[in-house]
Specification:
Elements: E1 3-8, H1 16-29, E2 33-37, H2 40-46, E3 51-53, H3 81-93, E4 98-103, H4 105-127, H5 133-136, E5 143-148, H6 164-185, E6 188-193, H7 200-209, E7 213-215, H8 225-238, E8 244-249, H9 262-270, E9 279-283, H10 295-314, E10 322-327, E11 330-335, H11 336-342, H12 346-352, H13 355-360
Parallel strand pairs: 1-2, 1-4, 4-5, 5-10, 6-8, 6-9, 7-8
Antiparallel strand pairs: 2-3, 10-11
Helix pairs in contact: 1-10, 2-3, 3-4, 6-7
Bound molecules: adenosine-5'-diphosphate.
Length: 368
């Protein structure tokens, strides 16, 4: 009987529990034993009761639940070979021969490294007398499949990561709430959203709320961003718009690579010698990560979880480590490291689309 372990790693995201539920139940359905590894790579390295066999009913009610009920952690030990050796020992001790990991690009890169190193880790365990050659023989090939759990939608090769639509929904709901006050008092709000390297949340929230201006890391603002933003905001105000919403990603930059902060934007909008708008900053923070998963994330997590179990059973040593993606509404398997490398080119992809136009459909931008 195959033993398949499931873990969540890196930053939590809504839908991770739905992934675990789908994997556990699909594994049972296909006649395998599912295990959960608690606390991400920490659980793999420490072993013991952090690796637990799961039953069908253990994941009841997990479909909509936010965060990850099996825990996640950053694990320094897994960056070192020593830590990965301990992880290999724990997997073999539990008789686990396949691993499904739901996490961000860091976690998935670690997974690929672990798989590549696997044969030499086994050799070392035999050398050290932890296991005999006969004991490790059934585990010569470790199959690993990745699933992308991230609110940032920051992996290339997939249309959506598990959790991103829940976070986007949360941001839009927050902006809707803020808009009441903004309109009432004719104020401006600078809203900081998550996204250190990837501005998908800020960009899509900008489109979905009709924000006046946005800042994202992939598209550093020109030197004249101050004039540009003030001109647009002033135009909107002249046409009778009483509220101003500026959305800024954590990793917003200018062309020189300098950080653009919410404070800078606020000071500019509030400048007595300029627009002199009463301006407040709202940092949404971890509210964006929380709450139940939206329908899309539940669906994505479930379909991808099912596919991950099938993929991990199909994989052979010659095949690359797979990540489960969604492209053009189809659930597909893709080489994991290709997707990680392509992610670096994502800025180009964003510039090629019509988001500038979508952003410009705000109040009267073309009504001149
Ligand atoms: P995310 O998965 O959300 O991108 P991190 O980059 O913090 O988050 O990665 C989560 C964990 O994955 C790390 O704490 C570490 O244990 C493991 N990890 C990340 N990158 C590597 C790597 N290159 N080699 C080994 N382990 C890694």
């Amino acid at each position: 009987k195959k033993k398949i372990a499931i873990m969540t790693s890196g930053g939590d995201s809504p839908g991770m529990n739905a992934v675990v539920r789908a994997c556990v139940r699909m594994a049972i359905y296909l006649g395998c034993d599912p295990y959960c590894i608690y606390e991400g790579y920490e659980g793999l390295v420490r072993g013991g009761d952090l690796i637990r066999k799961m039953e069908w009913h253990d994941v009841r009610g997990w479909l909509s639940e936010g965060g990850t009920l099996i825990g996640t952690a950053r694990c320094m030990a897994f960056y070192e070979r020593e830590g990965r050796l301990a992880a290999a020992k724990n997997l073999i001790a539990h008789g686990i021969d396949a691993l499904i990991i739901c996490g961000g690009d860091g976690s998935l890169t670690g997974a690929d490294r672990f798989r590549a190193e696997w044969p030499s880790l086994l050799d070392e365990l035999v050398e050290k007398g932890e296991f005999t050659e006969e004991e490790v023989t059934p585990y010569r090939h470790l199959n690993i499949v990745g699933l992308v759990g991230s609110i940032d939608n920051d992996l290339s090769g997939t249309d959506a990561t598990i959790g991103c639509y829940s976070a986007l929904q949360r941001i839009c709901a927050a902006v809707d709430l803020i808009e009441a006050t903004a309109s009432s008092h004719s104020r401006a709000f600078v809203i900081e959203v998550m996204g250190r390297h990837c501005g998908w949340l800020a960009l899509m929230a900008g489109v979905a709320t009709g924000a006046d201006f946005i800042f994202i890391p992939e598209k550093p603002r020109e030197d004249n961003w101050r004039e540009e933003m003030c001109r647009i905001v002033e135009n909107h105000r002249k046409r009778g718009k009483r509220k101003t919403i500026v959305i800024i990603a954590e990793g917003a930059l200018d062309r020189e690579g300098n950080k653009i902060t919410p404070q800078m934007v606020r000071d500019l909008l509030a400048d007595k010698n300029g627009l002199a708008i009463d301006t407040r900053i709202t940092t949404l923070g971890h509210v964006q990560r929380g709450g139940t998963a939206v329908a899309y994330d539940r669906m994505l997590a479930t379909l991808q979880g099912v596919e991950a179990v099938k993929a991990v059973l199909d994989a052979t040593p010659e095949m690359p480590t797979w990540v489960i993606a969604i492209t053009e509404n189809k659930i597909v398997r893709k080489p994991l490291m290709q997707a990680v490398q392509d992610t670096k080119k994502v800025a180009a992809a964003i510039e090629s689309q019509d988001f500038d136009l979508a952003m410009s459909l705000r109040d009267a931008e073309f009504a001149e």
